[in-house]
Amino acid sequence: MPLVGGRSVLALFVTAVVLVATSAPACRAAHNITAILSGHRDLSEFSRELTATGLADDINGRDTITVLAVDDAHMAPLKARGLPRGTLRHVLSLHVLVDYYDDAKLHGLPGGSADVSTLFQASGDAPGSAGMVEIADRRGGRVAFAPQDAGDARGTAVFYVKSVHQAPYSIAVLQVSGVMSSPAAEAPSSSPESTSRLDVSDVMSKNGCGRFAGLIAATAGASAAFDKHTRDGLTFFCPADKAVEAFEPAFKELRADARLAVVLYHGALGHYSPQALRAGHDDLATLASDDAGTTVGVAVHSVGGKVTLVSATHNAARVTRTLADADPVAVYMIDAVLVPFNASSPPDLGPSETDGRSGRKDGGDGRQTSGSAPGWPRRGWVASALVLTTLLAAFASG
C-alpha cells in the first residue's frame, strides 16, 4: 500500500490548522456577569455593587474568570459599613479570581490547595501577596477561600456553597458563605488630592490610549484645564490609538484654539461611573465651550448596556472599555475621536493666532474669552473634508 505523499501530508496539516484556527473563536462565548446573576434574586445586591464599582465591566472583559458571589443577607453588613467606593471595589475584587474554577476543579486541587490571583492583585493596588486568595480543600470536603494578607488568611475564610453558573474555561460563578476582606483591601484609598493628570496619563498610555495622552501633553492649555477640574470630578473619554492615528493628519491642520477644543471635548465635568453612564440619557457637559463661553455637550445613548456618545457634529463613538473608575475620576476608552464644532459650516478665514494679529484669547481652561469660535484653518474646506473622512474611516473600522 503506497504511503501518503509529502504534498498530501502538508495539505492535510494546513487544512487541520485552518480548521482549528477558524473554529477556536466559536468555542469561546462572551459572558455578561449581570445577566448571569439576574436570574438569582438572592444575589441582586452583589450584582448591583459589581456594576456600581465598575467590576462588572472588568469581569466581562476577561476571557477566563471565576466570580465568588455573596448573597444579599451577607452583603448587608458590608453595605451597612458605608465604605468608600474605592475601598468597596478592592474588597469585592478579592471575590474575582483570574482563573477558572468549577465544582470539579475545586475538589481536585493538586495537594489540596492553590494560591490564585484576584482582580485586586491585578489592579496593582495590593501590596505583596495581599491580592492573592488561597483555596483549600478542608476536612469533610468543605472548600475554603481565604485572602493572603498579614499572615492570617485562615481567620477570614469563607466557604464554597454551590455552583451558580459554569461555562467551562470561560466563566464560573460560585456562591460562597460570606464576604472576604483584608487589611490591604480596606486600607485608605488614594485621596482626591493625590489623583493627578500624570496618573490618568499613565492609565491611558498603558491601555491603548497613548496617542491621546500625547495629544493632551502636546496641546497648550489642555493639561492645565484637566488638572483644574480633576479634584471636583472629571470623566475622560480617550479615543483608542487607532482612532487618533486616523485623525491626527486633520488635527495637525487645525488652528491652536480648535485643537484645544477638540482635546478638551473628551473631558466631561463630573465623575460618571459605568452604572451612571448606562443609566443616563442626557447630555454631559464637557470642558469645551463656544465663543460665548457656553459649554458644548456630548449626548449619551445607552441601549442594552452599551453606551454610545454622540458629538455636537453628530459623529458617534462607542465606549468600549472602562480603564479606571476611582472617584472623582473615571477613564473610558472610545472607538472614535469626538469633534465639538461643525466642520461643514464655513470655516473661519481670519488670521491665525501664530501670526500675531489674532484678537483671540484663551482663559486657560479652554473657555474662550474673545474672538470667533474655534476655527478651521485657511485651508478649511480641505481640512473639513479630511476630518469627516478620517472620522468615517475610524468609525467604520471599529
Automatic annotation (TrEMBL):
The keyword Glycoprotein applies. Keywords: Cell membrane, Glycoprotein, GPI-anchor, Lipoprotein, Membrane, Proteoglycan, Signal. Residues 196-338 form the FAS1 domain. Pfam families: Fasciclin. It is a lipid-anchor; GPI-anchor. Residues 344-376 are annotated as: Disordered. Residues 354-365 have a biased composition (Basic and acidic residues). One of its GO terms (cellular component) is plasma membrane. InterPro entries: FAS1_dom_sf, FAS1_domain, Plant_FLA. PROSITE patterns: FAS1 (PS50213). SUPFAM superfamilies: FAS1 domain. Residues 1-29 form the signal peptide. It is found in: Cell membrane. PANTHER family: FASCICLIN-LIKE ARABINOGALACTAN PROTEIN, OS02G0726000 PROTEIN. Belongs to the fasciclin-like AGP family. May be a cell surface adhesion protein. This is FAS1 domain-containing protein.
